[in-house]
Every structure is written in structure tokens, then in C-alpha cells.
Amino acid sequence: MEFNAIIARMIKRHLQQLTAERLGQFPAVALLGPRQVGKTTLAQTIAEQYPSIYLDLEAPSDRAKLSEPSLYLSSHEDKLVILDEVQRIPDIFQVLRGLIDSGRKRGLATRRFLLLGSASIELLQQSGESLAGRINYIELPPLGLQEVGAGQCEQLWLRGGFPDSFLAANDQASFVWRESFIRTYLERDIPLLGPRVPAETLRRFWTMLAHQQGALINAAQIARSLAVDGKTVARYLDLLVDLLLVRRLLPWHNNVKKRLVKSPKVYVRDSGITHALLGLIDNEQLLGHPVVGASWEGFVIENILSVAPASTEAYFYRTLAGAEMDLLLKMPGNELWGIEIKRNLTPKLSKGFYHASADLPLTQSFVIYPGQESYPLNDNVNAINLRQLMELLVKMTTG
Question: Is residue 383 domain-shared with residue 275, that is, in the same domain?
């Protein structure tokens, strides 16, 4: 096992326990995320706890074993079967349904199948149609701050959370890995999933999103730049969102008797991929680039959402009159948290933040900044660093 793989296995993913728990509740669990995010490493760690068998469905030898899938999988019904890159054989879901239903009659109700997939549209549709009520979905994001430690925040922000990028020997090696990741996705992985999109056009689109990190998407402007129509831009965006490479953050839509912005904000989800698309290799280049504030905002949002309680809904708030808030979290139980994200050590509350706070029924308000101390900015708003806010969210999840 190469060095990075060994170190990656030493980093305990915060979803490892949840995945094991859900396997104890459901016959099938689907672990979804982009390629190279660590799904296989997590699955192999879980597999060490039970009798199991692992099949990589990109390997011809393993696909050949499933030429008669019912026969082969039935012979291993006493094991946890891990199917990696399961979207490569979409017809397998109908087979799994039959095996799960017949197994339940013999007391085999849980821990049958762990499915790993690159979050393709086909995977979600096939499993949703065939395994409803039999499967639980878990999204595995890139490494987060709570997994690598607060002391690694700047490196995690620059390089992003893909394990091979974060653990690279230096910033240049990390950048080279991310460049290769982007090229492989465009030239190999996306075509395998079905959509026929010119690789160079999709790269230009992805790069435009990186330049406009956290901005309201202007589909018409992008369409003109790419010489395509608006429907094609929407299709490109849907594709990158479905692959968990881009986040579409929706505007708060509840009636507050204000004229609200209706366009979503769009973020390239991994900060390291954002920086690679923009050619930013090290911290000096990043800190001198106009994207620095928006990149930090996206990094903070992804880390927050990676530990937010299940069923949390995320929005932003902006009115045409200028009231705005970077992130709203609608928690289970209908608590509403308002979050503003600042990159400077002496955060100031803007007029737009005060107006948004007056508009919204907030139960908690925070300003995230890169300092170490938590302190009140006024009677209703606390300045807090990212690690501290994530710890609050984890406590809500674990009780």
C-alpha cells in the first residue's frame, strides 16, 4: 500500500460510524461521492469488521463474476458484499431487490450490500426505482476540517479535501494531482456516465463557475461566452451538481414580504478544485487573487454542511433592497441559524446583515472569522471560528 493510502486510512472519516450504523438498519447502503474522495478506503475499513467480499465493477475480472449476478451473489449471502462503481452495471439494482426481498424471508434483513458510486444520475434513478425502502443514501464529501484538524485549515483550504491532493508531498504535487483529476473527469469519467459533452467546452464552463465562485448564476451571459443556448448551460450545471462537484445554493423562499433574489448562487464544492481551475498553486497566489474571499466562503459552507444534522436545509438570503446573509441553516425542529462569513480578523457587521436579521426569525446568528476566540459582536450575534461552529453542529447531531 502506498504511503498516501496508509495515511488516508489513519484519518478516521466522520461518516464511518454512521455508515456502519446504517448498515445495521438497512439491507443496502449507498455511499455516494466524486471519484477519489475516499469511498473505497472507508468501505474497506468497514469491511474489516465483518465477513465481506469486494468487487470493483470497473475491473473486467470482477464484472465477469456478475455474468450471472443472482447466482454469484446468492453464494455470498452470508457476507457484506461491496460493489464499487456500481453505476457501471445499472441492471444490478433489480437483481439486488430480489435478493434483498428473498433474504428478508430468511432473516437476512440488514448488512447485505454496500454500494459505492460516483453519484451519477443513473445510479440515483436506478436504485431509487428498484430499492425504495431497502436502501439508505450517504454522501461522502472530501476531507473536512474536523477530520484533518484545525491546525491544517490553511492547507485544506488551498489543496481541497480529496485525500491524494491534501496529502501530497508539496503544493506543486497537489496541484498536478488536481489537474489530472479534472482532466480525467472531463475526458474519461463523464463520457462513461453517458452525457455527450465536449471536454473543452465543459472545462471552460467549470472554470467560469470557479471565476464566479459564490455568485448568482447568469445563464444567459455564460451561454453567450460558450456559444451555446441557455438550456445547454442548465444541462451542464445539472450534470456537475449531480456529480457532487458543484453546489447550487438556493435563495430563501419563505414569504417575508420582501422582494427576494430568485437566482441560485453556485459554488465549485471543493476549494482545491476551484484553485486548480484558476491556476492557483500556492497560498501567495491564492491570497493575491480576486477569488480569495469567495473561495473562503465556499470552503466554510462545505465544511459546515458536512457536519450539519441530517435533514438540515441550506439557503442564502438576499433582497433587492440590499439585505443579505451568506448562509441560512433551517435545522430539524425549524430552528433557523443565520451565518455571515468573513475572511478578516476584525469582522464588522454590514448594514445588509442587520436588515436580514430584522427580516428573518433567526434563533442563532454567527459571524465566522479566522480568529481563535469566540466573542459577542452584539446581544444577538457571536463571532466564532469555523472549527467551533462545526463542533456545535456535531454536538447537535450526536446529542
Answer: yes
